[in-house]
């Protein structure tokens, strides 16, 4: 189970890189008012969601202690990110606050994972 958990953790990091990278490549178009929610954000948030849930399932099956408060907060933040990505992914131009909020919530989720 440890190998499966570690593989999921690696995929979780890949999803994080895709999501945050998708936000970062929108900085230049954002300045021109032409930002979009790109496929990297869409696939990154889905990867994060699926691998995160599977990692919690594996952790629950093990003997270790799972911090349910931390997992609940991270899941709530990720659901907000997912909803934003799903709502705005088909639009040609999105408001700048959408891209900034997706990026800020992603960084907040990283901070929660590391600091709590």
Protein model, in words:
79% of the residues lie in helices and 0% in strands. The protein contains five helices and no strands. α1 runs antiparallel to α3, α1 runs antiparallel to α5 and α3 runs antiparallel to α4. The longest helix has 23 residues. It is elongated and about 50 Å long. The relative contact order is 0.17.
**Category from helices, strands and their pairing:** mainly alpha
Whole-number average pLDDT? 95
**Low-confidence segments, ≥5 residues, pLDDT <50?**
none
| Relative helix content | over 70%
Quickly count the helices. Answer: 5
Principal-axis shape = elongated
Roughly how many Å is the radius of gyration? 15 Å
How large a portion of the residues is in β-strands, by DSSP E? under 5%
Order of helices and strands: HHHHH
